[in-house]
Amino acid sequence: MIHSALRHIDKMLGFNTVSAHCDIPCKIYDPSGAQVAALSVIRFLDLINELADKSPQNLTDQAQLLRLVREKEIHAKKVKDEITVIWGDYFKQPQFEQYPDIHQLVHSIMLAASACKQHVTKEVGHNLLDLVNQFSEAFWTTKGVETYTANCPYPPSLEVVYPKLA
Q: Could you give the CA distance from residue 78 to residue 33 in angstroms, rounded to a whole number?
């Protein structure tokens, strides 16, 4: 009954729909989501370019291309979202003092993610991953956690920064 009343009020007043990180200081932040999204962008770029080399392309191939491009752009946006939340909610004055260039790095990530949405060259994806890895290393360092790099265990099998967890 209350849901019905709220829907009726919403129809009359036209509430704006919003979404946000919960903004509760849960202190649970991890850049791995951004890393996986950046790796996914690279993988989608690989698949897009493999499909582009196929000639002739049938309707199924064209539909697959559309899905790959859509997912590439969704994951590039996810990189932006994940990095923005950590930068905006976790990084405070002590972290800024430790990494005074973090604002420029975040801006570079935003530009690189946009480039991934605009282009289909693998280089833009690699640049995005490199920047996200730099951010990840900075993030873990501010938490006093050592890091190491290793190839991820799935395609595209590229180097990723991981925290050393004891």
A: 8
Cβ atoms < 10 Å from Cβ of 38: 33
Structure tokens at 79: 């990189």
Round to whole Å and give the CA distance between 15 and 7: 10
**How far is it, in rounded angstroms, from Cα 1 to Cα 14?**
19
Predicted TM-score of the model (pTM): 0.85
Q: Cα(first)–Cα(last) distance of the chain, in Å?
A: 52
Closest alpha carbon to 95 in 29, 33, 149: 29
Q: What angle do CA 80, 86, 89 make, to 5 degrees?
A: 125
pLDDT tens per residue, range 40-81: 999 999 999 999 888 899 999 999 999 999 999 999 999 999
pLDDT at 27: 79
